[in-house]
Structures are given as C-alpha cells and as structure tokens.
Amino acid sequence: xxxxxxxxxxxALDCYPNSAQAFYxxxxxxxxxxxxxxxxxxxQDAAPDPxxxxxxxxxxxxxxxxxxxxxxxxxxxxxxxxxHWVSRHAIGASDPSRRIFMGLSTDVGTYDGGDAGAPxxxxxxxxxxxxxxxxSVPVGVGLIxxxxxxxxxxxxQVGKKQDSLGASGEYAHVLANAEVAGHWHGxxxxxxxxxxxxxxxxxxxxxxxxxxxxxxxxxxxxxxxxADGAATSAGVMGTTDAIAxxxxxxxxxxxxxxxxxxxxxxxxxxxxxM
Length: 274
Hints:
By secondary structure, the chain is mainly beta. It is 4% helix and 22% strand. Strands 14-15-16-17 form a four-stranded antiparallel β-sheet, with no helix packed on it. A three-stranded mixed β-sheet has the order 3-4-5, with no helix packed on it.
C-alpha cells in the first residue's frame, strides 16, 4: 500500500500551552493526510458524471434500472474512442458456437442489446441468422449408425460438415424400384389376344425372360395352364404395369417431428453500449 503523505497545518502564534500533550494535539488537529483516490464502482441508474470517465477519479459503472442491474455481472467503463460506457460481450465476436432463436427473424438484429445497421465494435446487431442451417437439422460429426456414411469436416474448411457419401437428406422420398421389398409378379387379364381366357398371373417379373417353356401361366382357378412365350417377357401380356414401372410410388415422409427455429451466430460487434 502506498504511503499517505502528511500535510502540516499552521500553528497559532500563541501555540505554546502549558502541556506538551496539548501542543501535540493541536499539531494533529491542524495537519491532514493526502490519500490517493481509489478506483471503485458506481451502482446507479443515471450515467456517471464525466469526472469519473478517465483520470485519477476513473470508476466502473454497473448500470441499473430501479436499482436493479440491467446487465447482471457486467461492469461498464468509459471508452474514449466510442464515447460511451461499454462492456465487452461474454461471447467473443464471430465465436464458433451457435444459439437457437425462437423469435421472429426481424427481431434478431435487436436481440441481446443489438441495434440496426452493419455491425461495428460498438454498434449494429449482436447476433445474425446462420444461413448454413436453413432448412437443415444439426447432426453430430462421426459415423452414422447403421450407415456407411460419416459426417466429417472437409479438409481445410472450418464450419460446415459434410456427409462422406454426398447426401444431404430429403423431406419426402419416392421409392426407387430397387428399394421396394419383396418379390413381384405381373398380372394379366387375358392370356391370348382375342382369347376370352380367364384372369391369369405370370409367375415371374414382367421384365425377366422365361428360362424355358416349362414356365406356365395359370388361371385363378388353378385348373389350366398355358405355355409362357417370349412376348410376355416384354410385358405385353395383360393390363398392369411391369415391375419397372414408369408410374412412381407416392412419396413417403422422411422427416421426424420438428419445431421450426433459427440458428444464430455472433457478429463482429464486441461491446454492450450504455
């Protein structure tokens, strides 16, 4: 601790009392000590007086509203260049973390002490929407269970992670022929042109040629059979589509239950400003 200089006073001309103690007491009464100002905190609603902005009387300020801190845990100091009382945001500018925002997109700019305009160190929005997450859900980096795909960070890139198989998912999916489970057979209504034969079923796929004439077309009663000729392997038999149909199946939903949100990230702004 620094010493406090003692400043002597001026004794009266008739300062010679009968008692040495009285003389000593008068010396103390007329002198004083010079104590340096101590940097402290002002906790108040109103902005501090300019004498506390810089110099030996400089103090920190905890701004309040009705004596309750506006930014709990934050201490503001005078920033000579910005000309305002400021406090640095706890999350660094352009920090790689993200925050979920449930409000309107138009409210992001004024969220968390932000304001309109382009971000500077002391003005503009604190947060902005991360367009990378538009219409997408986050997935942890690593091997996707039950899949050959791995979510990985591309070499030399920071931020966006990609599926090693190049897939990005889809909202609804139309099954391809190869994705349909089970074994299928073509169905016909007339075994021979101009025939009048009963309904029949082909015991193989339309687009698979017969391996011999021992394959048969059987009527629904199971009482008659006909030789399976080459023409049916092309799908000309009957009225239904071949297994390789040109008519796609109806798409089925692949999305899990979800809630629409915004993912936001910090901007280049650094300070809260009072």
